[in-house]
């Protein structure tokens, strides 16, 4: 009877060790989500396009003003 109890306990300990080794090896780790860039819909692309056109239009106009207002140096 004592020997049978010890064998059962040995089986439980062995199963526990296997489970712990799997956890350590990543067997029970959560799967990672999708990585990378999120895709944009058509409306979102159009909104970004309008913002960038406005941004670059302002940049160009400011640059033109700076060129026209700057004193020209002669060499």
How does this model look, in words?
- The chain is built from two helices and no strands.
- It has a domain at about 1-25.
- The protein has about 80 residues and is mostly helical.
- The mean pLDDT is about 85.
- The longest helix has 28 residues, at about 40-70.
- Helices cover about 70% and strands about 0% of the residues.
- The protein is rod-shaped.
Key traits:
75 residues; mainly alpha
Give the overall shape. rod-shaped
**Termini distance?**
108 Å
Radius of gyration: 34 Å
What's the count of strands? 0
What's the helix-strand series?
A: HH
Report the mean per-residue pLDDT as an integer.
Answer: 84
Topology readout:
Blueprint: H1 2-25, H2 42-69
In short:
This protein is mainly alpha-helical.
């Amino acid at each position: 009877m004592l020997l049978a109890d010890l064998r059962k306990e040995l089986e439980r300990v062995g199963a526990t060790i296997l489970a712990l080794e799997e956890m350590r090896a990543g067997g029970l780790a959560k799967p990672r989500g999708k990585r990378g860039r999120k895709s944009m819909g058509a409306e979102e692309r159009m909104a970004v396009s309008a913002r960038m056109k406005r941004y670059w239009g302002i940049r160009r106009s400011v640059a033109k003003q700076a060129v026209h207002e700057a004193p020209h140096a002669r060499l």
